[in-house]
Design brief:
The chain is built from seven helices and no strands. It has one domain. With 237 residues, it is mostly helical.
């Protein structure tokens, strides 16, 4: 059995298993003793099988094309999807780390300013020099202003993280949209495969059989066997 014969099953059952039975019926008929008729029939059958195998080969090629298309489409979109997620996290990481460092420095500065104020208060309690206290508080106020400006800059940086050009959710949505867009092409190829298989599934009576029955009927020969029940005899063979 050829590789194609081993792989193909059409119309839900193994069509090839029917071939020996059909061949037994065909080649046991007396009508095939005419060499010319047998040659013509053999040539017709050969062309039919050859055409079917050729069509099946084309369907396999279409199937391979579909698989390759799906793999390439997913691979290319997965790459851009991965890049968008990594960019999102990388940008957020840089801002978060830098802002954390800045806030640690701010906290250290605030602690230092509090110590300066406490020191100035103790000094004032000893000498009552209001000017020294005032200068210390003025320096602290300037530092607080600087810290507020720095904190505003940190907040602006945080806003870029909270409101990115593309969030992780948006990246997922775009990936899903692209996959759905490509899936339309995959479905089209899938329908072509189904249609190709359907076209090869011929469950109609052979035209030659219909022609033969019509010929027998036109000649009036069917009346000679009209009273004969052939179904049981044929099924028992």
């Amino acid at each position: 059995m050829s590789s194609v014969s081993k792989r193909i099953k059409l119309c839900g059952f193994d069509t090839l298993s029917m071939v020996p039975k059909i061949e037994k019926i065909v080649f046991s008929t007396n009508y095939l003793k005419h060499d010319n008729y047998l040659a013509d029939l053999g040539l017709s059958m050969s062309r039919s099988v050859k055409s079917a195998k050729s069509s099946i080969k084309e369907i396999y090629a279409l199937m391979d094309s579909l698989q390759e298309t799906v793999k390439n489409d997913i691979k290319s979109n997965l790459s851009s999807f991965d890049e968008s997620l990594r960019t999102r996290l990388s940008n957020a990481e840089n801002v978060i780390i830098e802002s954390s460092r800045a806030r640690e420095a701010m906290v250290a500065g605030i602690i230092g300013m509090r110590k300066s104020i406490d020191k100035a208060q103790r000094k004032f309690s000893r000498n009552n020099n209001i000017e020294d206290l005032r200068l210390t508080l003025l320096d602290v106020a300037k530092d607080i202003s600087r810290l507020r400006i720095a904190n505003e800059n940190i907040s602006e940086s945080i806003k870029t993280v909270l409101n990115p050009n593309m969030s992780a959710v948006e990246g997922v949505e775009r990936f899903a949209f692209d996959i759905q867009r490509f899936a339309a092409t995959w479905e089209r190829i899938g329908r072509e495969i189904d249609q190709g298989i359907s076209d090869l599934c011929d469950d109609q009576d052979p035209s030659e059989l219909v022609d033969l029955e019509n010929y027998i009927s036109k000649q009036g020969y069917d009346k000679l066997i009209s009273n004969q029940d052939l179904s049981e005899e044929v099924e028992s063979e």
